[in-house]
């Protein structure tokens, strides 16, 4: 799905958290957002999903202004996976994934066979099909994140947004989750912390103090100069002999002096 | 279109079965509530009076018995059922929307505000009659809930803050009620109001029924209509918004419905605690957290529970009526303790 945002902004307590961001997302691409803590990645994602009140700027979904769409219309197109959303309800995996059908149902068109099939498919796609009866409280962090992704897939979105989906996961779950996301046939926008993981995106946007300061192919954007100025680390690009891909190694700037 | 209707037909069977079972349980409880009381009346006479009034069956019944049954016990039991259902539904809604297992109209100060409003109307003579009292209760309930939510938000907006703000709100409005009573009521009024505030169904007559049942039914319909939206709040308001829920609108409608139900019930029978807290949790335990099951189950269980509590309040001490709030608290406080312990284990 095509998304174009112009001049997005959001203030909290007189401070601009996101300031004048314009962005065009191409259908089918995986777009990564990187930036230091507090640079406004999460807020920008929420602005793009239309989830922030009192926002400045406008977002077009397939050339239709989002402000004129109902929440339900947006949710049928855009799914959002928050950072570690939790519940105290005794939901099972299937219950949680069924929530994804919410924008497609109403009191008059209840949950049916087709919805059931979509939910099963979504659980299988996220690798949680074998755990559908497990209670939420018994799941590990990685499993919970997979359930959230399955829930988002059950929404049948054309655009999937993920806010630091690999946070708090061990390395195995990080990689399998990113692999899962990369195989999905939807447009993806995700905030990421790990620059090496960000290298696998089609394009990257770099945030600093609420502004989008660079945008383009990962190899072009993540130059040693930019990484040094924004992330305040020195980076050495190495080539992995296993597949000739570029990997970064980071050094503290202090060590170099 | 066949995709829409085929599943609906097969999904209807359990709905019909459970609906019938629930309705039967409710009818049995109501008949039980009518039959048991200070004056022992045989079931056959109760059924004869009901048949006489419902479809002019023409059984010969002692007019005094008929009067006790039709003018006192039937409305009293029906109002008990409506109040129980309304309070339990209020608890379900508040717990889902504020995402706090301890939320209920009593703890969040809604009942206390409703009490203040109703007392103000009675004593100060603002407006009059049943509707005036309910309107006063509604105004008081809305005001106190608004204050509690604003205070919780000013204190940082977390779950513990809400409970603490609710305690402050309850204390404030209970104090206002006491103040109003001391300042303006005569001794007889004061005794009556104090007794009524503890929860009391003995003054219930037919006009009360025509207020309680529509309020409970309206609340039930609203909760069922928004059952899916209530589910969507499981992971928080922002997650609900990303699932396509118009969060603000749903919150306003459902909290409005809750306040309306609580205010109506408080203006009729006084402030009854623990039903809104314990019944939803007991039902979550039995039918699970999904609201399309939880809402009807909690409404039914609340109705049955309050009928049973009313019967208990009548027969517990011979020739004395214990306030129903005392009975629900005697059962509810241990239930509340269980919820606290269960929550600690889960955390």
TrEMBL record, chain A:
SMART domains: AAA (SM00382). InterPro entries: AAA+_ATPase, ABC_transporter-like_ATP-bd, P-loop_NTPase. The keyword Ribonucleoprotein does not apply. Keywords: ATP-binding, Nucleotide-binding, Transport. The keyword Zinc does not apply. SUPFAM superfamilies: P-loop containing nucleoside triphosphate hydrolases. GO terms for molecular function: ATP binding; ATP hydrolysis activity. Residues 3-234 form the ABC transporter domain. Belongs to the ABC transporter superfamily. This is ABC transporter ATP-binding protein.
């Amino acid at each position: 799905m095509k998304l174009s945002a112009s001049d997005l902004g959001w203030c909290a307590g007189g401070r601009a958290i996101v300031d004048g961001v314009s962005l065009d997302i191409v259908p089918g691409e995986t777009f990564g957002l990187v930036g230091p803590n507090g640079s406004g990645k999460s807020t920008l994602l929420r602005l793009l999903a239309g989830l922030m009140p009192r926002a400045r700027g406008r977002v077009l979904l397939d050339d239709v202004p989002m402000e004129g769409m109902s929440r339900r219309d947006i949710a049928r197109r855009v799914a959002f996976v928050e950072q570690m959303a939790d519940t105290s309800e005794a939901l099972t995996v299937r219950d949680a994934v069924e929530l994804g059908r919410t924008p497609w149902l109403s009191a008059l068109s209840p949950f049916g066979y087709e919805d059931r099939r979509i939910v099963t498919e979504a659980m299988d796609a996220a690798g949680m099909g074998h755990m559908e009866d497990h209670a939420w409280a018994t799941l590990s962090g990685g499993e919970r994140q997979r359930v959230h992704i399955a829930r988002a897939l059950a929404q049948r979105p054309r655009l999937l947004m993920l806010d630091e989906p690999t946070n708090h996961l061990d390395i195995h779950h990080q990689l399998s989750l990113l692999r899962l996301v990369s195989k999905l046939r939807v447009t993806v926008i995700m905030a990421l912390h790990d620059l090496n993981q960000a290298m696998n995106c089609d394009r990257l946007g770099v945030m600093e103090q609420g502004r989008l300061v660079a945008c383009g192919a990962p190899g072009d954007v993540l130059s040693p100069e930019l990484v040094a100025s924004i992330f305040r680390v020195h980076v050495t690009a190495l080539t992995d002999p296993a597949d000739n891909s570029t990997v970064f190694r980071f050094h503290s700037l202090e060590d170099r002096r | 279109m066949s995709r829409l209707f085929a599943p609906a037909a097969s999904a209807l069977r359990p709905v019909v079965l459970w609906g019938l079972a629930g309705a039967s349980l409710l009818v049995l409880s109501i008949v039980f509530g009518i039959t048991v009381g200070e004056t022992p009346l045989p079931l056959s006479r109760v059924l004869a009076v009901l048949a006489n009034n419902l479809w002019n069956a023409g059984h010969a019944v002692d007019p005094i018995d008929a009067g006790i049954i039709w003018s006192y016990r039937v409305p009293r039991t029906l109002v008990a059922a409506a109040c129980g259902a309304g309070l339990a539904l209020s608890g379900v809604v508040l717990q889902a929307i504020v995402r706090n297992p301890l939320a209920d109209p009593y703890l969040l100060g809604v009942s206390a505000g409703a009490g203040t409003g109703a007392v103000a109307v009675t004593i100060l003579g603002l407006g009059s009659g049943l509707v005036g009292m309910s309107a006063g209760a509604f105004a008081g309930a809305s005001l106190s809930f608004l204050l509690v939510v604003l205070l919780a938000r000013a204190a940082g907006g977390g779950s513990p803050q809400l409970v603490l703000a609710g305690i402050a709100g309850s204390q404030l409005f209970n104090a206002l009620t006491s103040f109003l009573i001391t300042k303006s009521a005569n001794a007889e009024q004061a005794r009556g109001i104090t007794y009524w505030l503890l929860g009391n169904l003995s003054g219930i007559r037919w006009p009360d029924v025509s207020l309680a049942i529509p309020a409970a039914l309206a609340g039930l319909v609203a909760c069922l209509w928004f059952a899916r939206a209530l589910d969507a709040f499981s992971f928080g308001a922002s997650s609900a918004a990303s699932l396509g829920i118009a969060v603000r609108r749903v919150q306003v409608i459902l909290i409005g419905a809750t306040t309306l139900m609580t205010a109506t019930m408080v203006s009729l029978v006084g402030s009854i605690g623990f039903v809104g807290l314990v019944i939803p949790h007991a039902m979550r335990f039995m039918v699970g957290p999904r609201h399309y099951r939880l809402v009807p189950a909690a409404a039914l269980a609340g109705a049955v529970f309050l009928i049973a509590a009313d019967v208990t309040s009548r027969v517990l001490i011979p020739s004395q009526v214990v306030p129903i709030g005392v009975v629900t608290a005697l059962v509810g406080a241990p239930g509340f303790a269980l919820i606290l312990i269960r929550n600690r284990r889960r955390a």
